[in-house]
Design goal:
- The structure is a single chain.
- It is built from no helices and 11 strands.
- The protein is mostly beta strands and 151 residues long.
- The strands form 2 sheets. A 6-stranded antiparallel beta sheet has the order 2-1-11-10-9-6, with no helix packed on it.
- Strand 9 and strand 10 form a beta hairpin.
Amino acid sequence: MGCLVNGQLFVPQEPAAVPYPFYSATLTHDPADNLNMGWKDEKNSCDQSSIGIRLDSVKLTQGTTYKLTQQVDTSNAAANVGQWAEYLDITSCSQFIFSPYYTTAAVTGQVTITYYNPTLGVVSGTFWFDAIDAGGDTVHVREGRFDMSTN
């Protein structure tokens, strides 16, 4: 996975001492397809960012482009269905400055599935999106691509 965030290279990485994964992809079929992908760039515990893309209740099909818009119910995390993306940024340990950016109905993006093999659990694609935080600041994610195993 890789992309540009406001023109800067974003590649998932983590410090060697951290025991948890820095990328994940889950795919469920209940009854529609739900693809949830996440990547973290953690230079250290005080300088980290992550990108997440969720395609919920879709028919996952190779060659299809999905619009990334808003979460359905932002007050209930369990009800966050739809096709949306987020960018999270932690920039300070002393103040724990946490800036979540989300796609919305007006600030959107796209993800295109370029390869999908449900038998092998492999999905590949490209993406871009803009996302906005509560203060109105916008982040631009461009030239994204991924190759993920969902098993």
